[in-house]
Amino acid sequence: MGPIGVVAVRQYIAAAVLLPLVRPRLRALTRRQWWPVLLLALVFGTMNLGLYAAIERIGLGLAVTLEFLGPLSVALLSARTAFNACCAVVAGAGVVAIARPEASTDYAGIGLALAAAASWAAYIVLNKTVGARIPGIEGTATATGISAMLFLPVGAFLFLVRPPDGFTVLCAIGAGVLASAVPYVADLTALRRVPANVFGILMSINPVFAALIGVLALQESLGAAEWTGIALIVTANVLALVLRDRAEGGKP
């Protein structure tokens, strides 16, 4: 189906699940509520499309690790201290270890993953704003519906040109439910209860899971440099979490 086809189906299914359940009151939304919803709808598309296109080029583990720089940036920028600057340097070293400029480096894939990272950072901030301004999950449902409408023309064209088989469609539907509808609602609910920087730090396990799944399920191979880069980026998040706990007088 290609990255665009998969993302399109994800947005369709998420909208098909959330809109009938939530039934957002669109006419009741004010201009102050509309603008973060519209931006969130755009971010849904750029975040997922950038990630899937990156996975196609550089593999699951590296794509998710680089994308994770988005929430890491939110965590570090929300508390600008010398220690957090050191964490940023550690994460930067991880990026260099993963990218390793050489003739075979897929700069396009790395760039797509970094674009997904910027979108993920925006996703966290916008979700926090939407959750504060719009009750329930009406804002998320509305943004999902708008995002699905944006993908409707290109998705319909792709399916007409290259119709997928039934099993592929079922997998895409599963991705729509498990990777869009459920996490969109879960993220919004979590961001109402925890600060955005804490949410970003708690996502630090994602690169590790992605790398392991890539190796075990997709037969992707990672060298020592790639594993070192993943470890450095995850370590930066752990250090940031320890710093926050100590600053608040808690235990790391």
From TrEMBL:
The keyword Protease does not apply. Belongs to the EamA transporter family. The keyword ATP-binding does not apply. InterPro entries: AA-Vitamin_Transporters, EamA_dom, EmrE-like. Keywords: Membrane, Transmembrane, Transmembrane helix. This is EamA family protein. Its main location: membrane. The chain crosses the membrane at residues 6-22, 34-52, 58-77, 82-101, 107-126, 138-161, 167-186, 198-218, 224-243. Residues 109-240 form the EamA domain. It comes from the Bacteria. It is a multi-pass membrane protein. GO terms for cellular component: membrane. Pfam families: EamA (PF00892). Signal peptide: none annotated. It is found in: Membrane. It comes from Arthrobacter crystallopoietes BAB-32.
